[in-house]
């Protein structure tokens, strides 16, 4: 399947009987920095793929605006790519990092060339960038922005200057909504969801697993230390965007039952997570949602984690065990406790609280409320 030609949107399909009264044309603004394809660079890219796919399955017309190299099945309209900067501009000693300039160019180009966005009934800003919010008032279509992170300087600045008539906000957890409440008091919580048909239960019983981006804020070194104390070993999987961190803080801890398996394809990752007795989740920051928690539960794998951010919202006493933040001894105890939990209870928690169908239903409801 190829990308839609410039200036044209994908063919609108009929609504699914009993689910939607009317098809919508939705512009989904995604990440410009990372392609939306498996294996996903992170939870944001996985979430965007799930949302776009779920909306299309309901018969809605979805145009995804994203980075180069994305999944062809998404029919992504690629955002503008920054041409090579002049030698003169690179002499500026205050020049930001290359990726910052590239992202700024991509989103500025998208918002200035408003044609494709103007043909949408609603624009859903699913990116982490400030420009779609700052320039929302230039669009005819209303914009919904999902808050995936705590306030950051650039994003907070745009939110302060927004036009309330043109923007509405959702947050991926009550925790994240609370962090934004001083600036955005009216936030609808729409928790992320996972496809329960793609994340399927496994047999369990194997060595615990840690999966996600191997970066400092995810705390894989603490998970390793806790697993060593618990005597269980640990298998790790995921991308290594911070190679220096991995080399200096994680790699020296490998061996003796601690194994790094690489950045796995979806099928292999589902098998790995489903085979584990426990999924260890060790955030060192206030995790806005924690998609790996929902994915583990969908595989029937109980979770042992730090009680940070939204994790206490996702887990209950039947599906996981929590320890105080950064408490390695407590996390070791949580691993032992989680290994005794019923796998069917973990899967049930995913079905009742973490379904992508529930997430799509809630977003469609918001889209309809936004339409003039």
Automatic annotation (TrEMBL):
Residues 212-349 form the Glycosyl transferase family domain. Residues 1-22 are annotated as: Disordered. Keywords: Glycosyltransferase, Transferase. Pfam families: Glyco_transf_4, Glycos_transf_1. Residues 42-198 form the Glycosyltransferase subfamily 4-like N-terminal domain. GO terms for molecular function: glycosyltransferase activity. Signal peptide: none annotated. The keyword Glycosyltransferase applies. InterPro entries: Glyco_trans_1 (IPR001296), Glyco_trans_4-like_N (IPR028098). The keyword Transferase applies. This is Glycosyl transferase family 1. It comes from Amycolatopsis thailandensis.
């Amino acid at each position: 399947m190829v990308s839609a030609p410039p200036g044209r949107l994908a063919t609108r399909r009929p609504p699914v009987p009993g689910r939607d009264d009317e098809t919508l044309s939705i512009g989904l603004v995604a990440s410009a920095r990372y392609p939306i394809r498996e294996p996903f660079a992170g939870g944001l890219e996985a979430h965007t793929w799930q949302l776009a796919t779920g909306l299309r399955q309901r018969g809605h017309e979805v145009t995804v605006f994203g980075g180069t190299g994305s999944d062809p099945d998404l029919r992504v309209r690629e955002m503008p790519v920054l041409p090579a900067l002049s030698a003169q501009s690179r002499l500026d000693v205050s020049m930001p990092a290359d990726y910052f300039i590239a992202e700024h160019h991509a989103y500025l180009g998208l918002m200035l060339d408003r044609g494709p966005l103007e043909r949408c009934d609603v624009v859903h800003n699913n990116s982490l960038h400030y420009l779609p919010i700052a320039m929302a008032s230039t669009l005819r279509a209303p914009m919904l922005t999902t808050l995936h992170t705590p306030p950051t300087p650039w994003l907070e600045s745009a939110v302060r200057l927004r036009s309330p008539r043109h923007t509405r906000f959702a947050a991926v957890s009550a925790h994240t909504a609370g962090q934004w409440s001083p600036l955005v008091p009216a936030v609808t919580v729409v928790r992320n969801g996972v496809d329960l048909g793609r994340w399927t239960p496994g047999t369990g019983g194997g060595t615990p697993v840690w999966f996600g981006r191997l970066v400092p804020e995810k705390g894989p070194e603490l998970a390793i230390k806790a697993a060593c104390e618990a005597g269980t070993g640990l298998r790790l999987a995921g991308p290594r965007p911070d190679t220096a961190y991995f080399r200096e803080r994680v790699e020296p801890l490998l061996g003796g039952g601690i194994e790094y398996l690489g950045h796995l394809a979806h099928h292999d990752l589902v098998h790995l997570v489903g085979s584990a007795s426990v999924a260890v989740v060790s955030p060192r920051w206030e995790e806005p949602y924690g998609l790996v928690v929902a994915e583990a539960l969908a595989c029937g794998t109980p979770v042992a984690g730090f009680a940070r951010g939204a994790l206490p919202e996702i887990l209950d006493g039947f599906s996981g065990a929590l320890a105080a933040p950064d408490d390695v001894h407590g996390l070791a105890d949580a691993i032992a406790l989680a290994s005794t939990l019923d796998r069917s209870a973990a899967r049930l928690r995913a079905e009742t609280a973490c379904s992508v169908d529930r997430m799509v239903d809630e977003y469609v409801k918001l889209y309809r409320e936004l339409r003039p």
